[in-house]
Amino acid sequence: MAGGFIQSIGDMAEALTNPFGDNTLRLGVTGLSRAGKTVFITSLVNNLLERGRMPQLRAQAEGRIDAVFLQPQPDLTLPRFDYETHLAALTGDNPHWPDSTRAVSELRLSFRVQPGGWFAGWRGPGELHLDIVDYPGEWLLDLGLLDQTYAQWSDEVLTRLAKRPEGADFLATARAEDGALPHAEDRAKLLADRFTAYLHAARAAGRSDCTPGRFLLPGDLAGSPVLTFAPLPLPGQTPRGSLWREMQRRYDAYVSRVIRPFFQTHFSRIDRQIVLVDVLEAVHRGPQALEDLRRTMADVLDAFRPGRNGFLDRLWNGRRVEKILFAATKADHLHHTQHPRLQAVLRAMVQDAEQRAAFRGARVEALALSALRTTVEETVTRDGLTLDMVRGRLLSDGRQVAMFAGDLPEDPARLMASARQGAEAWLDAEYALMHFAPARISRKPGEGLPHIRMDRAAEFLLGDRL
Ligand code: GDP
Asked: Per 3-state DSSP, what percentage of the chain is helix, strand, and coil (rounded to 5)?
C-alpha cells in the first residue's frame, strides 16, 4: 500500500518535471521472411499519420493527438524504411504488394500529444518519438552460434543434415573435401554455394534450424568472404593455411563482426517488440509445416528469454523488452467469426515459451490482424449450408473469387498435438488458401489503409506512452 502510494507520488513528480519521460520508444518489428513485416510497418505508419481508422487507439479516441509526422531518424548509417515507395505500391492505380524486408531498416515517427488522465490541464503537450526498427526474424536464429565454436557448429549441422534428404548434395560435397589441404577460394565458394542452396531448400520445406541467418537473407553482405564458409568435418590435422582453418576464421568473423554487432547495435536497444507469424499459411500447408513453424518460432523467441544466453544477458544488463505482441498476420483471409480461433492457434504456438515464464517481466499478448485488408466478408448458403466466406481479387489472375478457408478448431490443442505427433495431413479438416492482391483503394484525407485490428496492436505497443 505505502509502497504504491510513494511510487505514485514519485511517478507524479517525475511526470511533472519530465512529462513524457524518456521521449523515445524503440519498436522492433520482426518475423520470418514473408510474415508480413513490410506491409505491417507501411500500414502502421500510414494509419498513425491519418488516424481515421484507429478507434481503439485511446489517445486518438480521446482527441489528444495533435500531430503525427515523419522525422529524420537518429541512426544515420542505417537504411531508412522506404515507407513512401511501399505505400505507393499498395495504393497506386495498379496496386501490388511491395518488396519484402531483406535487411534491417528504421523509420522515426513523432507524435505531439496532449497529456491525458491525471495530468490533463497540469502540463502542456509533449512529444514522443517512435523509432520503428524492421529486421528479419531469421537473424535472431543466429543467437545460438554465439556459444558455439566452428568445430562444434560443423559437427552439429552435419549430424542434422544427414537426416534431411535436401542435405544430401551438400553432405556429399563436404565429406569429399579434405579440410587439411591448403585453402583454395574456388573450393570455399563451391561449399558455401551448396550449403546456401541446402538452407534455401530446408527453409522451403519449412524446416527450423536454418542457420546462419545471413545465408538466407544476406542484406549487404552478399558475396563477401564472411558469408563464404560452410561446415566441414574436422580433419586429423588442421595446419595453418588449410581450408578448415580458413573456414574457421570466417565463421569466427561472422560471429564477432556480424552477429554480435547486430545484437549490440539494434536488438539490445528495443523497448517493445512485435513478432509477426504467418500461422494461416502453415496451417494450410499441413501438420508438418505447422510443427516446423512452432519449432522455428521457439528458436526465434529464445532471443527474448532471460538466461538463455550469457552474451545477451550482459548486453541487456537487467533491462527487458517491456512488451511483446505476437500477431497472426493476413487475418483478412478469414471471416471475422474465425479470428478468435486463429488467435488461439497462435497462442498455442507460443505457449511453451510463455509457460516457462520465459519472457519474465514483459507483458505478452497475441492478436490476429491484417495490415492491409484485401477482402470483404460474404455469407453464402449452398445446399442448405451457410458458409461465412471472404471475397477478394486473386493475386494470380485478378479474378474476383469468394473463399472459405476452412473451419479452424475451437480448441487448437488438437491441431498442435497432431502436428507434434508427425501427422501427414489434417484428419478431419481441409484448409484452403488463395492469395489475394491488394484491392484498389480510393483514399480520402484522414483515412488510412483498410486493416483489421491495427489500432488494437498500436494501443498495446505504444498506447501507454501517448
Ligand atoms: P516480410 O517478408 O515480412 O517483409 O513480408 P511482406 O510484408 O512483404 O509480406 C509478404 C506477403 O504477404 C505480401 O507480399 C502479401 O502477399 C502478403 N501479405 C502481407 N500482409 C498481408 C495482409 O494484411 N493481408 C493479405 N491478404 N496478405 C498480406
From this structure: 45, 15, 40
Single residue among 207, 231, 255 that ends a domain in this structure = 255
216 touches 273 (CB < 8 A): no
Query: Between these two residues, 5 and 196, which has the higher pLDDT value?
Result: 196
Range of the structural domain that residue 42 is part of:
2-135+266-372+441-465
- Please state the domain count of the chain: 2
Q: If you measure from the C-alpha of residue 142 to the centroid of ligand 1, how many angstroms do you get, rounded to a whole number? A: 24
| pLDDT score for 116 | 80
Q: Is residue 433 part of a domain?
A: no
Question: Are 453 and 331 in contact, with CB atoms under 8 Å apart?
Answer: yes
- Output the ligand 1 site: residues, CB below 6 A: 31, 33-39, 97, 100-101, 329-330, 332-333, 370-372, 374, 435-436
- Give buried/exposed letters for 295-328 (b at 16+ CB in 10 A, else e): bbbbbbbbbbbbeebeebeeebeeeebbbbbbbb
Asked whether residue 398 is assigned to any structural domain, the reply reads no
Residue nearest to atom 17 of ligand 1 (CA): 36
> Would you say 226 and 250 are in contact if contact means Cβ atoms under 8 Å apart?
yes
137 CA distance to ligand 1 centroid (A)? Answer: 15
pLDDT per position as a tens digit, 23-55: 999 999 999 989 999 999 999 999 999 999 999
* 421 vs 459: CA distance, rounded Å: 38
Strand partners, 243: none
Tell me the three state secondary structure of residue 379.
strand
